[in-house]
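The passage that follows is intended for readers who have already worked through the single-chain material. We present the inputs for a multi-component assembly, then the predicted structure in tokenized form, and finally a short commentary. You are encouraged to pause after the input and sketch how you expect the pieces to fit together before reading on.
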Amino acid sequence: MAIINQATKELQVKIVYYGPAMCGKTTNLVQVHDHVQTAAGNKGKLVSLATSSDRTLFFDFLPIEAMSIKGFKTKFQLYTVPGQVIYNTTRQLVLRGVDGIVFCADSQYEKMTENVESFQNLADNLKSLKLNLNEIPYVLQYNKRDLPNVAPMEYMDFLLNNREVQVPAFGAAAHKCEGVFETLNMITRMLLHKFVNQGQPQYA
Amino acid sequence: MGTLPQLLEEDIQRLDDVLREYLERSDATTALIIDKGGFLITSHGDARRFDLTTIGALASGAFLANQTIANLVHEENFDSVYQQGETFSMFVTNIDESCLLMVIFSSKVGVGMVKYHATDARKQIANQLKTAQDRDPSAGLDLSVLNLADPSALFKRKA
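Having made your guess, compare it with the prediction:
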């Protein structure tokens, strides 16, 4: 749940990048960290709790401050989850207090089963936290579009974006920083709109 | 999942006072109140030497991981976590369903004092949070002052 600190005029929001193993969640955060244009001191350190082979073990964490919106400093906390199936408990922990989700899918044909399973896993984990995918802003990112064996975007929409309400989906090649900022800006905009419409965030 | 009550400036002031008194009594270096989702709510003490935002996120994750371990060994919860270092040590304890108190203290300071005075501090923090909750649990903050019609990107890529 986002926090607004009335004393310091700060809005704190948590966005989680979710998806199957090796789909590019950490790469998204690395690219944001490396390329985002911020005032001095507004970008925190990218923290990765990873194994020696660079697989995310617990989560990656990037605190970052966007430009001020009407006097509110907007502080975003970007997290990734570990993609491997066995780390489900960890994924549940990271989802606690989530405000917006980027579901990162691997566009390669052979990864479609993993994508669908991971998406279902996301819905299940939100349910275990008494949250509902229909009520949380989320966007889809179809990553690795630069590889030769990718499925068409329409097919991925059919598999992952076939719910009652379709959400924005972006093609991306995260390692080239293509589609990374488009995705981040869309989820940011969606969840801020939600707050304005519902007036739900807590404030401190 | 519990949500934070709405806190006014006077609540924050009171929480800061509790942390200040706690640091004086325990001789600890820095005290933080953290939401279990990973947000730093407020802090007192030396903030220059530490990246409190990141520490808050990691401490929250570590505490919740320990809570899961507690359940696996048939404990309802591990109420607190203590990490001993050579220069600084860390103590995290549960305040209520939503929040944690985290303390960073010199390793020369006895952990007994830190733990002893934390008992009182967390009660006072919990009371203040409850006061805020009871004040008006349903009211929200009007964010309509935010101009989201502005089409410019919130995050821009370096040219």
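Commentary: The mean pLDDT of chain B is 85. Strands of chain B lie at 30-35, 40-45, 80-83, 88-94, 99-106, 156-157. How closely did your sketch match?
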